[in-house]
Amino acid sequence: MKKKIFVFVLIAMMLLSSCSSASKRAPSQTESVQPIYGMVEAPAMEEAHSAGTAGTGAQASVERVVLKSADISISVAKPNDSMKAISEMASRLGGYVVNSYSWKDKDYSSGRSYDKATITIRIPAEKLDSTLAEIRAMSATGTEGVISESQSGQDVTSDYVDSESRLRNLQAAEAQLMKLMENTDNLEHTMEVFRELTNIREQIEVLQGHLKYLKESAALSSIAVTLVAESSLQPIEIGGWKPEGVVRESIEKLVRNFQGLVDFLIRFGITCLPFLIPLGVGIYFLIKALRKRAAARKDKRKKNEVPAVVAEPSPVEPSENK
Questions:
Q1: Residues 70, 54 share a domain
Q2: CA distance readout (Å), 109 to 24, 116, 147, 242
């Protein structure tokens, strides 16, 4: 009777400690179970292994788990009103708004200010295409008002199946350890099994949280929408002359020229400098050696030259007049 009470208390302590520690512990997918092989019976290990093998075999027939997302930018008459309409659309479709932001942007070439807005929503994955079609229809000029659009998907089926397999293995090991704890009479072994059970319970809760995150992410797709005022895209025209076109063309040409210069410097630095630097150092030392040699020859010639003695003319004696 005392033994059963002791085992019951240990199990209660294990459940309480695992719940408190799992809430503080950061999720980790790289941890592995370290079972007490000397204490767990062979049937338990075989059962866990068979569960993992069955999970691997089921991977081929499992439904694909794909995280879908889209990014779209459109021109609208009033970005703030369109942002509210998209928010209502998300609620109507069973989704929600992740974040939204609106601001004033200024065109310095014309001095005018325009409204801009961004909103990110999550909607059921099966309604992704129909939702994008509704957002395109919000453009002031129809589908021609779609500035940019992109879709992407991340296949996490392998991660999902692997996590499920690991979860089954952990749950099987947990069940066998529970049986082992009930049948052991050694207090030291009981405490060791209790510690292992606590560790396994933490890993089970981490995997369950990870699987829940993957399921929810796959069930709801993300759409990031950028709303641009249509008036900001209209060209400025004065008597048939469009100064904004000239300004834009000049800026693009300046950027292209600068880009070409930077590209040339990068190519020159990567392809030529590794050869020119050693060559320049060699030429420098060669010129220095030649100058030194020429100076030595010049000094030698000066030493070998004998200065010529200039004979002074003998004075002429005046002739005597006889």
A1: no
A2: 54, 18, 21, 11
Residues 94 and 9 in one domain: no
**Structural domain for 284, as ranges:** 245-293
Tell me if 230 sits within 8 A of 72, measured CB to CB.
Answer: no
**What is the bridge-based pairing of β-strands 66-76 and 220-229?**
parallel
- Proportion of the chain above pLDDT 70, given as a percent: 67
What does DSSP assign to residue 60? G
Residues 49 and 90 in one domain: no
Give a yes or no: residue 27 inside a domain: yes
Domain count, the chain: 3
Judge if 143 and 165 occupy the same domain: no
* One domain for residues 115 and 193: no
CA distance linking residue 36 with residue 13, whole number of Å: 20
Report yes or no: 74 and 201 within 8 Å, Cβ to Cβ: no
Secondary structure (H, E, C), 190-206: HHHHHHHHHHHHHHHHH
- For residue 143, report the phi and psi dihedrals to the nearest 5 degrees: -65, -20
Over residues 153-188, the pLDDT tens digits come to 989 988 999 999 999 999 999 898 888 888 877 888
* 91 and 101 together in one domain: yes
Which residues are registered as beta bridge partners of 154? Answer: 67
**Could you give the CA distance from residue 139 to residue 7 in angstroms, rounded to a whole number?**
68
| Dihedral of alpha carbons 291, 297, 303, 309, sign | negative
In this structure, are 122 and 198 located in the same domain?
Answer: no
Which range has highest mean pLDDT (53-62, 137-146, 200-209, 306-315)? 200-209
DSSP secondary structure letters along 243-268: HHHHHHHHHHHHHHHHHHHHHHHHHH
